Amino acid sequence: MARVDELVTTIVESGFSSLQVIADFDRTLTRVWYNGKECETCHGIMDNSSLMPAFFREDSNKLLAKYYPIEIDPKMSEEEKIPYMIEWYEQIHELIVKCKVSQESLEEMVSSSNARLRDGTEELLSKLHSAEVPVLVFSAGMGDILEQVLRHFNVYTDNVKVVSNFFKYNDKGVMIGFKGDLVHIFNKNENAIHSSDYFDKLKGRNNVILMGDSLGDIKMAMGVPQPSNVLKIGFLNDKVEERLESYMDNFDIVLIDDQTMGVAGSIVGLMK
């Protein structure tokens, strides 16, 4: 605990000018539960949308049932999991292409979904925007849906950079594939950002608040130019007993079934 106290003190005392924030999206910035119901992730928004064909939901759930247990298996190494994760993402991506998704349908998918930001996220992001703190949102989900959620809640400001899997459209605005390299759960690190203008914003920002809900998220600060202090906040949302030990070993602070941004909000609230 002493190390965590020291980290928090250093980050607070160094102020906004030394800070950058790196966060996962699904189940980190967004809630897992709301009013007793499970909230939709980026994939879930598509899965449950009436604008998507029925076969998409069916096939996507089969893939989830096959690959998700591998993703969270505490007995498998990351190296063993990676080929399965790539396989899963590629199959999901092929499935989405078959659905001929139109760019203009995404706004309706998001607004009719039950996706919600964690309580206090809007206030936290608003404060970071006012203080001109760069925020990197890193997601192995679908960037187009994610951006739409950020817009829906009015938090997609000019200090926020999203790195994710983005759709490629034809001239009729129909999704025909994905742009660039695949971002999956175990290659989420800043090396995946080839945008030099983002790195320019990070000069002198050696303090990082990193937030994620999976062990793969810990790497998100790799590639940050000289980070000296990285505070890792982990949201442990399910399978608590079997995963708690590995989360405690890897994150500085572990929050169990917490649907708020209270901890990060309190730290940022102390800063000048």
UniProtKB/TrEMBL annotation:
A GO-annotated cellular component: cytoplasm
GO biological process, one term: nucleotide metabolic process
Protein name as it appears in the record: 5'-nucleotidase
Taxonomy of the source species: Eukaryota, Metazoa, Ecdysozoa, Arthropoda, Crustacea
Keywords per UniProt: Cytoplasm, Hydrolase, Magnesium, Metal-binding, Nucleotide metabolism, Nucleotide-binding
Family indicated by similarity: Belongs to the pyrimidine 5'-nucleotidase family.
Gene Ontology terms, MF aspect: 5'-nucleotidase activity; magnesium ion binding; nucleotide binding
Naturally occurring in which organism (per UniProt): Cherax quadricarinatus (Australian red claw crayfish)
Keyword Ribonucleoprotein: no
